[in-house]
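Handout for the seminar on molecular recognition.
Each group receives one record of this type.
Step one: identify the two inputs.
Step two: read the structure output and locate the region that could contact zinc ion.
Step three: write two sentences on what you found, then compare them with the reference statements printed after the record.
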Amino acid sequence: MPAIDLPIPEAWHDLAHQKGMTIIARVQDRYHLALACGTCGRPSKHKISALRACQPQCPHCLEAQWRAAAEQAGLEYLRRDPEDMMYAWYRAPCGHEVRRQPDRMRQIGAGRNGLRCETCHAAREAAEAESCGWVLIGSDPEGDANYRLYQHGCGHQQRIARGNLQTGRFSCGCCGECWSAAPSWLYLLRLHLPGHGPVVKLGYSRNPQSRMRHQLGMTAELGCALVVSIPMATGHDALKMEKRLHRKLRRRYPEAVLPREAIARHLNLVSEIYDAALEPVIRTELERIARTPAS
Ligand SMILES: [Zn+2]
Ligand SMILES: [Zn+2]
Ligand SMILES: [Zn+2]
């Protein structure tokens, strides 16, 4: 900020001091001043009219407050949004960047509001669709927030309510396949999570091979391998058995469940991952399920 050689009336100095600031110089044009903050001592540019009308806000102190509020909420403050100064960018616990209003941090820190990472959420929705043999194309062309546009394995695209996709209450308008009534698989994957070591993932899918390749965001260094897959008569059975098995594992082996933060940095999912020590236990469970006739 190059200084401009214009006089600074004594009354302005008094006014600035009353507001906890010190005038350094006139800058930019005849409407602006550089003020030093009485708290942090750092300079910032302000309009002369703003000094007269209100309490000038030191941007450095404001940023420090935002940083502290973000930390309280479990996020890392990164920077102001250059497009809109009312917003800032933060690093979420999952590792993704999210854009929020700083006020939101105070609400999250106080537990009045949750943080939903858009990147993680989109990945979760895509994985959800893939588990039943569909691909998430995008938002609903008719604009209903409860619906999405999906494409079936047969190539047909249709709108489906997300709730119905989750429960299998729909069928393909072209080939007629109802995912929840069609054959599916329970599977166990083994992979290497950087910073943790070998882990296993238990899930269900219409096509475990494709799920592994496309939907989990698994890169080569994760060394992903399909350990075992168990055919299930229907998608509904697969979903039911998977949920039951996760409940059992969480209850009996809580120490083997990987924390969300450890997973989301590397994979497009937030749960269903266990330490590799649990692999023999899960294999035994899956073999038992495979031997049990479908009810
Ligand atoms: Zn300051
Ligand atoms: Zn995320
Ligand atoms: Zn179809």
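Reference statements: The chain has four domains: 3-57, 60-109, 118-181, 184-291. The mean pLDDT is 88.
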